[in-house]
Design goal:
Length: 298
């Protein structure tokens, strides 16, 4: 049973930073859980890729998608950033390798192309199929950027890139666009995310193996595990946007416990004001204290 003052335990890490936390932990075996603001909506940003990965793997193992099918990634597909999204030249690559890049280096173009293979409608319907009532999935990274372009009255993504590079819009104008609004973009709750991870970890072995492997190879993020005890094995997926940081993870303990953890941090209209690392440390502290408070099975 969590202490009555549990929210203050978490908030003490974030209040001095001017940040609001949404956090939740769930035991993957017995379902016990606790959290703070765990039912309030949060922006997913790149955390959405774990949903894309799960649906892709599910379809592969049902024989609906051939992961060896090759895709040509061209300039028209590239969004900028890591992986194929930032390549200078066209490349031929399997859709299975795109899924791996999407998860390991948070490749946005890979996420677009994998979503194209599973179908945007399948991504949008995923929350209702899994009973995640606090989750809304509207599309892959390209969809989110296209929404931003419309909000800013910009013609297309090429024009949007020019606007962002030239800094011709203010931070306030950017934060008024849909990617910053949990009611208008890919969004979930901390409690829904741990419920989803429990579904994945307790689901069919081939799909669990894929998602677990990809999350274990994430090269960006690793926020929650920084203060974890030696021996904890972490599998994570992070996301970030100016003023938003989030990460979900599964911690597998040496004693056999398995915890799904989700921590999201919001600076409201701010941008963490140079304390990015302090916010990440607060997120890791929150994860550690969530695990301590949940404790061992009763």
């Amino acid at each position: 049973m969590a202490r009555p003052d549990w929210p203050r335990v978490i908030d003490q890490f974030f209040d001095p930073l001017g940040v609001v936390a949404h956090a939740h932990i769930r035991d993957l075996d017995d379902g016990r859980s606790l959290g703070v603001r765990e039912s309030e909506p949060v922006v997913l940003v790149s955390v959405v890729k774990v949903f894309i990965a799960w649906e892709f793997s599910r379809r592969v193992h049902e024989g609906l998608i051939d992961p060896a099918e090759t895709v040509r990634v061209t300039a028209a597909d590239r969004l900028g950033g890591t992986g194929t999204a930032g390549f200078r030249h066209d490349v031929q690559i399997s859709v299975g390798d795109l899924a791996q890049l999407m998860m390991e280096v948070s490749d946005n173009t890979a996420a677009d192309l994998v979503t194209r293979h599973i179908g945007a409608s399948a991504l949008r319907s995923l929350p209702s199929r899994l009973g995640l009532t606090g989750t809304r999935l509207i599309g892959s990274p390209r969809t989110i950027l296209e929404d931003m372009a419309r909000d800013l009255d910009v013609a297309d993504l090429e024009a949007l890139a020019h606007v962002l590079e030239s800094k011709s819009v203010t931070a306030e104008e950017l934060r008024a666009t849909s990617p910053w609004d949990p009611l208008r973009t890919n969004a979930s709750t901390a409690a829904d995310m741990t419920a989803f991870l429990r579904h994945v970890w307790n689901g069919p072995e081939p799909v669990r193996h894929d998602v677990r492997n990809w999350m274990g190879r994430q090269l960006t993020g690793g926020r929650l595990v920084r203060l974890a005890p030696t021996g904890v094995v972490s599998f994570g997926r992070s996301g970030s946007l100016p003023g938003w940081l989030g990460e979900i993870a599964v911690w597998e303990w040496p004693d056999g416990r398995r915890h799904a953890i989700a921590v999201f941090a919001s600076a409201g209209q701010g941008n963490f004001q140079g304390n990015f690392r302090e916010v990440e440390r607060a997120m890791s502290n929150a994860a550690l204290h969530l695990a301590d408070e949940l404790g061992a099975p009763q």
